[in-house]
Each structure stands twice: as C-alpha cells, then as structure tokens.
Amino acid sequence: MHESQNKVVHYVYKQVDRVPSQPSNFRATDIGETAVTLQWSRPTHSSENIVHYELYWNDTYANQDHHKRISNTESYTLDGLYPDTLYYIWLAARSQRGEGATTPPIPVRTKQYVPGAPPSNITAVATSPTTISLKWLPPPVERSNGRIIYYKVFHVEVGRSDSEATITTLNKTHLILDELKRWTEYKIWVLAGTSVGDGPRSHPIIVRTHEDGMYGF
C-alpha cells in the first residue's frame, strides 16, 4: 500500500522590471531668446532603473521634430532655438527595458530679440529739388526675431559725419524726405526694431536731389 505524499510547492515571486513611468512636474523654469531651461521630477515607478532621458521638441516655424538623449538628471537647458518661436517640448525616461511614457507636450515661446537683418529692397528716388521718396520691405520673417514695431530712417548730406544724420522714426514702410537742399547728394539708410531694440542698419544708398526745373519719377 502506497502512502500519498503531499508535495509542498514554494512559489518565488520576482518583481519584473518595467519601463519607467512618465516624469512628473515637467516645466520650463527659465525662458530666453534662444534657450529654455527645463526641470522635472523623476518617475514614480521604476525610477531606480533609469539610464537616461529622451527629450523631444518641435518648432512651429520650421515645423520640424527634434530629439536629444540627455543624462540621468532632473534639469536641462535646451539651446540653439529661434527667438520669438513657439515650441512644443516633451520628455520620457528610458531604462534597460525601454522607453517609458512621455509627458504631455508643454508649449514654450522663446522671447523676442532685436532683428537679425535690416529692411530689404530699399529704393530711393529724388522726386523734386527738395524731396526724396523712400520705400522698403521688412526684414525676412526668419530674421525678424519678433514683431517689427518701428523703423528708423537716417539721412545726411554726403561728406558729413553719420552722427549728424537726421533720424525719422515711423511704423510704415515708406517715407518722403522733404525740406532737402537742391542738387545735393544724401546718404540714406534704414533699420527695423522690435520691442527689444534696434536691428542692424542697411547698407547706405546715395541719392541726389534735382536741380530746379528737373523732373524725375
């Protein structure tokens, strides 16, 4: 007669490594013209297994997606950005098991800066012995670095110092210079500005007013 034997089976439970959960409190703490400082808190699950973070962003100007792998830290300064541009930025933690859930994208707009280029297509034509008609286009959009809110037009007689130039500030892209001297050469240049300040000035152009009795258009 065989006696039945009760077998005792011991189950060993082992926690399986998982990919990290998403980082929390992801935010921008300092925003400049071309850089943004980001901070976050470590994921609540599997944070001890993090090997690095994956940072993603896109810009609404060039409409391009970007990615950068960064070290196991809780802050990072993202630089090389365009001024006055809206970015969407998100973050994920990665362990040996793989990439975890990403944070929701956060919108960040960089600050404005002075224009990076002068106005373009500047034309100047003498229209009488005492007037010169000017017109121009704004700086290229990709070099504006913000909203153009004013222009400065400088004019001075050729042979005089630039520091003696008369300055006219306006928010239009055309101007008639008047009360000028007859049959006189003037040097003229233009710059654009944002709320931050003046951009670079254009290359000067030289225009001579008419003599009495001349007509020019």
Automatic annotation (TrEMBL):
Q: Which Gene3D superfamilies match?
A: Immunoglobulins
Gene Ontology CC terms, in alphabetical order: membrane
The identity of this protein, by name, is Fibronectin type-III domain-containing protein
Give every Fibronectin type-III domain span: 22-113, 118-212
Pfam families xref list = fn3
Q: Which organism is it from?
A: Glossina palpalis gambiensis
Q: Which residues form a coiled coil?
A: none
Query: According to its UniProt record, where is this protein located?
Result: Membrane
Tell me where on the tree of life, at the top rank, the source sits: Eukaryota
The organism's taxonomy opens as:
Eukaryota, Metazoa, Ecdysozoa, Arthropoda, Hexapoda
Q: How does the record classify its membrane topology?
A: Single-pass type I membrane protein
